[in-house]
Amino acid sequence: MTANLQFPNDRCERAWAVYVGAEKSGSRAEKLSTLDALGVELIAARPEGRRQFVESWCLAFLDGDAVSPLSLGNGQWMRLPLFRAVFRPVLESGRLEGRAGYARWSAQLHGLFSRPEGAYRPYEPSAKALLREALQVDPGDIRARALLIEDLLSDVDYYCHELPAGLLVKAEILLERVSEVEDLLSGTIWAARSHGGLSALRRVAAGDWSDRVLDDAFRLLSLRFRIAKALLPKTRGSRSLP
Length: 242
Fold this sequence. Notes:
Blueprint: H1 10-25, H2 28-44, H3 47-61, H4 80-96, H5 102-108, H6 110-113, H7 127-137, H8 142-160, H9 171-185, H10 190-193, H11 195-205, H12 211-221, H13 224-231
Helix pairs in contact: 1-2, 2-4, 4-5, 5-7, 7-8, 8-9, 8-13, 9-11, 11-12
């Protein structure tokens, strides 16, 4: 499956088709050998051609209704050797050049950045920082906004999940997250809908852990995936991963 991918040349396109076929029905040895062959062809191609290939892959599988459009940290379908050899250098250089979309794509594939040699090592900037960077480069990046809102509310949900037994973070940090979410929701239909829940979270930070306040706070937190998904631009149909 090519899914509107742009290849540097015919050799790369053929190598991709052979590799995808091996991924679907080949042995482990066939998968590895065709993956190596694909990497060789892509590395040998012109840098501009590699960049177009990486961009087209990200547009197809990170900007569409793919398997998990709101997933952070786990990444999408991608073999680590291909990511290391081709995707990582392109994404890092494009991000440093301030190209729109690159910081968000890097956030969505953050789990792979954290495995430069196979073992997990925290990668900086964090996924959250990359999403903030994406919005600085392109304030109109709706996907970055949706992903960041979901990520922030997930943080808040963790901070609060032991209540009323205790809050798992300093009140100042909770308030920072709440204010950032409020700013990100400004101008959307969810700004008004989330007002009561965000106000309840501010009361939680102030030490009010009454049943009514917690009910309002947890009601908002339970909607975090729905809120983020509602903010995503509508697409004509979902794309399956190769």
